[in-house]
Amino acid sequence: AQSVTQLGSHVSVSEGALVLLRCNYSSSVPPYLFWYVQYPNQGLQLLLKYTSAATLVKGINGFEAEFKKSETSFHLTKPSAHMSDAAEYFCAVSEVDSSYKLIFGSGTRLLVRP
Amino acid sequence: DAGITQSPRHKVTETGTPVTLRCHQTENHRYMYWYRQDPGHGLRLIHYSYGVKDTDKGEVSDGYSVSRSKTEDFLLTLESATSSQTSVYFCAISEGSEAFFGQGTRLTVV
Do A100 and B44 count as a contact with CB atoms less than 8 A apart? Predict the structure, then answer.
């Protein structure tokens, strides 16, 4: 079964600093990969997705992620953090079967210091 | 926003009582999913559906059942609620390359 590992349950950065949230997956076949963001008391919103096209994926709100097959990684970055980026971020992988089930990492809460 | 409505949004129930959560979509998507969200675990799949009357178990299906009699509705039932089922429940819909999530139902079992 596939699994997703997110390093760091909490990440704290200063406003304007680089944001780096780490995600590694276990799969011998490149899957679909996703980053979702969750604001307090809300559902999940898709930030970006990788579906075997370009390895550098750009998403909403200035976020991007790079698919690295050799490292089985899909880390999320943003050059300059904004206070509004404070939220919980989830990396997910889609099963490589016909169900399109998502397997989620445990999440990383991003704190942005003024 | 994708047309997904979860009801109720909040519920408090007693141990041993049955509970049904409803997910309604207006997007005509084939796939529907129920996840639960717990601190430190992310979201875990309970059950999913790939068509009317077609459902299958997910990672944490014990104590839960589902039904899908219409494309637009996917029901999650806790036959006899336990305190371990206190959680936030999310419904999601998909046509393959992207899943859309509802706003969640916060369930407390006392």
Answer: no
